[in-house]
Model the fold of this input.
Amino acid sequence: MKKLVGAFIALCLVISLFPANLTFAEEREGTEIVNSAQSAILMEKNSGMTLYDKDSNKKLPPASMTKIMTLLLIMEELEKGGIQLDEKVRVSEHAASMGGSQIFLEAGEEMIVEDLLKGIAVASGNDASVAMAERIAGSEKEFVAQMNQKAKDLGLKNTHFMNPTGLPAEDHYSTAYDMAVMARELLLHDDVTKYTKIYDDYLRKGQDNEFWLVNTNKLIKSYPGMDGLKTGYTSEAKYCLTASAQRNDMHMIAVVMGAENPKKRNADVTSLLDYGFGQYEGVKLYSKNDPLKTIRITKGNPMEIQLAPEKDVVVLKKKNDQKNEYTTELKLSNEPDLPMKKGSHMGWVVVKNGDEEVAKVRLETSGAVEEAGLLALWQRSWKNLTSFQRF
Done:
């Protein structure tokens, strides 16, 4: 098959929008938005634009915000079919021995994946995190290697994990920016917010060892649109939170690290989110799964497949700003290896304001593509030959 010609294929669409000016976070003197946190960032999930930044590349201990990466690997494994929500996981001695936040698993106990997922997302269970790490990777050590590889794949240069829990460990660090990128990737898995936005629930309901789960993120109950994600605390890290909230076509991610106490941490997060929702609005150009391009794969079955964005393509604009023109392009990958699963990455939707890139969303296949059999390839070749002869 011929290579998909041209790295950039313009849709030739010019869209009248308001200028977003969002490539760089706003520079602000003083602490009118973030008062307590050592480091903070506000990022809009759909566009990936940073709206506010305070030392967001400063390496700090992330505490239990580490579990954002743990949850990401769990959600990916569920999507691949490597684990099932109703599968029972046997808890090891090692997993049951975890200190800190826990759901008090006992060695030899069996608990289904979905309940362990709740234990991590709601109660920040270290024991549940290690139990799932061992189930997915065979050992905690191997799971941590996968965490670090995923961080590398996401282009995160200031993150290194030593465990899946966030318990204090030398050489275990991240940044507010890197946590926001991990959160953005996690939120691509829509089902995760079914768990991260739970305020309270029960494990082992009706049994003698029934356990009441209460979300460590109290803003779930008080902040409109809040759907996650993960708190963190150790004496070294102080109080941390990676929070996400949705309103209209915007999905904000706010990260604060190193706040003095829970009240000030929550105040900083609230201030960041209020700023984002108050000053900006989103314009949705395309919805998730909208077909944007049909490509031919000569050796594929089917031979044609549609490409669609993996999430909503949203451009932010400052409220009351004047109109400007934006262009949308498709940047397509070269010929893929077969077979391809549904959702295989095949390029990017790129939105620009002049020469400035203001949004970038992956293009994915809308279905699976298998390698065509010899008979189908012969029939296609014969059809092309006869068509050429008639011409």
Summary: The chain has a mean pLDDT of 86.
